[in-house]
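Hi R.,

Quick one: here's the Outer envelope pore protein 21, chloroplastic sequence you asked about.
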Amino acid sequence: METSLRYSGGSKRTLREESLRIHAKQKLFFDPKTQLQFHGELDTRIGAPSHVSAILRHFLPDLGASLGAGVQYDKQEKLLYSLRGKKAFPITSDGMFSFNVKGRYHLDKDLKERKPTAATELSCSIFNFQKDQDVRIKVGYEVIDKLPYLQIRENNWTFNADLKGRWNVRYDL
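And here's the predicted structure, written out as tokens:
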């Protein structure tokens, strides 16, 4: 099981107050290309779960793509169905630079309320930046919200920010 501490001054999903959350993720592999992921998050500010989800993901390594479908329940007591996809276009043969296109589509339990998200990213991965340390920098654009964002990721931590002033930090335990 993967666990992390997450602190934010608002997130991309909801405009919540600053809070520390404990996040856990478990992956069950059916084969090397298919996995079932479970996510759970406990908000320490309110002392209750803020998010639980399950998603079936399938990876298509020959195409540099992945697809997923799942269900999630959030602290607003909303049940959502989700579909997601991602495609990477390598820019360099060593994998250092790539252009990514990704999208997600949420549906409410009655299949009436719909919320699409889509983004494009330029990603730079620096392997062995220092001994046993990889760094990834992504500069992206959320197409539907028309919002640029930045992600800096290292082996144990991630920093995300956008131009609306929302940010979060994740530390993997």
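The CA atoms of residues 71 and 90 lie 30 Å apart.

Cheers,
M.
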